[in-house]
Design a protein that fits this description.
The chain has ten helices and twelve strands. The N terminus is likely disordered. It is α/β, with parallel strands linked by helices. Helix 6 links the parallel strand 8 and strand 9. The protein is about 40% helix and about 25% strand.
């Protein structure tokens, strides 16, 4: 189908006007810090299924390293803390839908995530690790091609295991992963190393780590919505100050047994 030059000019003008209208209708972003201060509460999200970083205790309270860090940041900003627990695979969607102000849930800072959210921190370092039951015949990464691999749904570890072409099963969080591994329903699990090592040190699980020379350190950060420089700066200052005055180490010693920065 062809168009006359006059029709083409009219079409271009209409398209330009429509585009201008879309641009003019784009919302003017206002930093959210002032509204949070007026409310007096910082809403932070996590799964509550990632001990010792965040989990539900016998009193039905969400406790651990993450909520302690989040509460201390809020306190230094003059705010109370409200913890929201949600499934990991929808946690960024919930942040973008304004269901909470930040995710303080051991989220690895990745290039893909940084395209849609901003990060404060990092507030600790972790890396991917692979575990199986002690005495298992699986001792090398080369054997994972024929194994059933357990991962948490929505984590970077799931993305990595899928990219390797492994036969994966997805679960809600670390407690379920460890249960499935010890019960033999998966052959190995892929998870951030620190919480599994701590679970092993507590004597709860008899596991073996499979060497993964491809794993690199990953920084964990606090996720917030984009276009919030004042909120980011206030949270970063609170985090920096607690690292400098020893409060961070008090929290780290209590929940993870040492410095993980």
């Amino acid at each position: 189908m062809t168009m006359t030059s006059k029709t083409m000019r009219r079409t271009v003008l209409m398209g330009s006007a429509a585009l201008l209208g879309v641009v003019m209708m784009q919302p003017v972003f206002a930093d959210e810090l002032e509204g949070i201060k007026e409310r007096g509460v910082l809403k932070i999200a996590m799964t509550g299924q990632y001990p010792p970083f965040n989990f539900v205790n016998e009193n039905n309270e969400v406790v651990g390293f993450d909520p302690a860090i989040g509460a201390e940041i809020a306190k230094r900003m003059g705010l109370e803390t409200e913890i929201v627990t949600t499934a990991w695979d929808g946690i960024i969607g919930g942040l973008l839908a304004n269901k909470y102000d930040a995710v303080v849930g051991s989220m690895s800072i990745t290039e893909e995530r940084d395209k849609v959210i901003d990060f404060v921190g990092p507030y600790y370092q972790t890396r991917r690790a692979i575990f199986t039951n002690a005495g298992s015949d699986i001792t090398t990464m080369e054997q994972l091609d024929d194994a059933v691999v357990g991962v948490t749904l929505g984590e970077t570890n799931e993305e990595w295991a899928s990219a390797q072409g492994y036969n994966i099963k997805t679960y809600k969080g670390l407690p379920e992963l460890l249960l499935e591994l010890t019960n033999g329903r998966v052959d190995v699990i892929v998870n951030d190393r620190i919480p599994v090592i701590l679970a092993m040190q507590s004597g709860q699980y008899d596991l073996a780590e499979i060497a993964d020379p491809t794993a690199e350190p990953l920084p964990a950060g606090i996720a917030i919505r984009e276009n919030n420089p004042d909120l980011a700066a206030a949270m970063q200052k609170a985090l920096d100050d607690m690292m400098e005055d020893g409060t961070y180490m008090e929290i780290a010693n209590e929940w993870v047994g040492g410095d993980i920065r």
